[in-house]
From TrEMBL:
It is found in: Cell membrane. The gene is flhB. This is Flagellar biosynthetic protein FlhB. Residues 227-245 have a biased composition (Basic and acidic residues). It comes from Sinobaca qinghaiensis. GO terms for cellular component: plasma membrane. Keywords: Bacterial flagellum biogenesis, Bacterial flagellum protein export, Cell membrane, Cell projection, Cilium, Flagellum, Membrane, Protein transport, Transmembrane, Transmembrane helix, Transport. The chain crosses the membrane at residues 38-56, 97-119, 151-171, 191-216. Residues 227-249 are annotated as: Disordered.
Length: 359
C-alpha cells in the first residue's frame, strides 16, 4: 500500500516537459513566454532613434505654430466660435506631426511582440473573464512572490536609468546653465538633443536588462507548463483514444466484417477445406466474372463457422489441403483466384458442376 502511494505521489510531480498539444492549447489561451521589458525597451529605443531624425521637423512645426499664434490667433476676437476654431486647428496640426511618432511606437511594439511569440489570432485570450476582476485574487497577485520580485526589478531599473540620466545631465550641465544666452531655436535643439540622448541611452540600458528577463520568463513559462507523468499518459489517451475503447471498436469492426463475410457463404459455389484448419469460399458467375472470386475465408474457429453455414445451406465442400492452404495465403477476400491456381480451381468447379448436373 505504501509503495502504491509513493508511486502515485511521484507520478503527480510535474517533471515532464510540456507536450506540443499542451503548448498549442496554452498559446491559444494567450499563455506564452514573453517579456514586457523587451517590448518597452525596443519601443523606447526605436522611438528615440526616430526622434533623432524627426526632431528637425518637430522644431520647425513648433516655430511655425508659435509664429502663427502670435501673428494670427492673438489678433482674433475672443469668442466661443474663434476659440473652437483655434483649438481644432492646433489639434489637427499637432496630430499630423505626432502621428509618425505614434506609428513608429505601434509598429515597433508589434514587431517586438511578434519576435518573441510570433503572430497568432487568439480570441480566447481577449474573452471577458470575471476572475480577472476578483478583488481577492487581485490582492493575492499584488502581494505574491512574483509581484515582490517585479517590484525589486523595477526599483533596480529605475536606479540604473536614474544614474544614466544624472550622468548625461551632469556632463552637459554647463551648456544647460548657459542656455539663457542662446537663441530660442538653439536652446530648443539643445534640449531636444539631450532628451534624445537620454532616451537612447536609457533604452539601450533597458534592452540590455531585458535580455536576462526574457531568458527568465522563458524558463519560468516552461516550468509552469511542466506536466506530470500521469498528465502525459492522460493526454496520450485522449489523443490516441482509450485502449479499451479502441479494443471494443476494433472488435466491433471485426464482428461486422465477419457478419458480412458469413453472408456470402450461402451465395457461394464451393467451399474448399483443409479440412480442419482452413476454409476458402469461392464464387464464379460465367459471363460476369473473368475468374472465380474468394468471397470468404477463415482459419480454425472461423473455418469451422464457415463449414457449419455451408452445411446448413447445402453448399458443396471439397477437401483439398494444398489448394485450401494456397488460396488462404495467396488471395484476400474479394480477390480473383491467382493464375497459378486456375487449373486446380477449375477442376474443383467442374467436379461441382457435374454433381449439380450443370454440364
Amino acid at each position: 500500500m505504501k509503495l502504491r502511494l509513493d508511486l502515485q505521489f511521484f507520478s503527480g510531480e510535474k517533471t515532464e516537459k510540456a507536450t506540443p498539444k499542451k503548448k498549442e492549447e496554452s498559446r491559444n489561451k494567450g499563455q506564452v513566454a514573453k517579456s514586457n521589458d523587451v517590448n518597452t525597451a525596443l519601443m523606447m529605443l526605436g522611438f528615440f532613434l526616430f526622434l533623432f531624425f524627426y526632431a528637425g521637423t518637430v522644431g520647425e512645426y513648433l516655430m511655425d505654430m508659435m509664429s502663427h499664434v502670435f501673428t494670427e490667433y492673438l489678433l482674433r476676437d475672443i469668442t466661443i466660435a474663434s476659440v473652437e476654431d483655434i483649438m481644432f486647428e492646433i489639434t489637427v496640426e499637432s496630430s499630423i506631426v505626432l502621428l509618425p511618432l505614434m506609428a513608429v511606437a505601434v509598429v515597433i511594439g508589434t514587431a517586438a511582440a511578434a519576435m518573441q511569440v510570433g503572430l497568432k489570432y487568439t480570441p480566447e485570450a481577449i474573452k471577458m473573464k470575471l476572475e480577472k476582476i476578483d478583488p481577492l485574487k487581485g490582492f493575492k497577485r499584488i502581494f505574491s512572490a512574483r509581484a515582490i520580485v517585479e517590484l525589486f526589478k523595477s526599483l533596480f531599473k529605475i536606479t540604473l536609468v536614474g544614474a544614466v540620466v544624472f550622468t548625461i545631465i551632469y556632463i552637459h550641465l554647463d551648456d544647460l546653465l548657459m542656455m539663457y544666452q542662446k537663441h530660442p531655436l538653439d536652446g530648443f535643439y539643445l534640449i531636444a538633443r539631450l532628451t534624445g540622448l537620454i532616451g537612447v541611452a536609457s533604452a539601450i540600458l533597458l534592452v540590455i536588462l531585458a535580455v536576462p528577463d526574457y531568458i527568465y520568463q522563458r524558463y519560468d513559462h516552461e516550468k509552469q507548463m511542466r506536466m506530470s507523468k500521469h498528465d502525459v499518459k492522460e493526454e496520450h489517451k485522449k489523443m490516441e483514444g482509450d485502449p479499451r475503447i479502441k479494443s471494443k471498436r476494433r472488435q466491433k469492426q471485426m464482428d461486422m466484417a465477419m457478419n458480412r463475410m458469413m453472408q456470402e457463404v450461402p451465395k457461394a459455389d464451393v467451399v474448399i477445406t483443409n479440412p480442419t484448419h482452413f476454409a476458402v469460399v469461392l464464387k464464379y458467375e460465367d459471363g460476369s466474372m473473368a475468374a472465380p472470386v474468394v468471397t470468404a475465408k477463415g482459419a480454425d474457429f472461423v473455418a469451422k463457422k464457415i463449414k457449419e453455414l455451408a452445411r446448413e445451406d447445402h453448399i458443396p465442400m471439397v477437401e483439398n489441403k494444398p489448394l485450401a492452404r494456397a488460396l488462404f495465403s495467396q488471395a484476400d477476400i474479394g480477390d480473383e483466384v491467382p493464375e497459378d491456381l486456375f487449373k486446380a480451381v477449375a477442376e474443383v468447379l467442374a467436379y461441382i458442376y457435374r454433381l449439380k448436373h450443370k454440364i
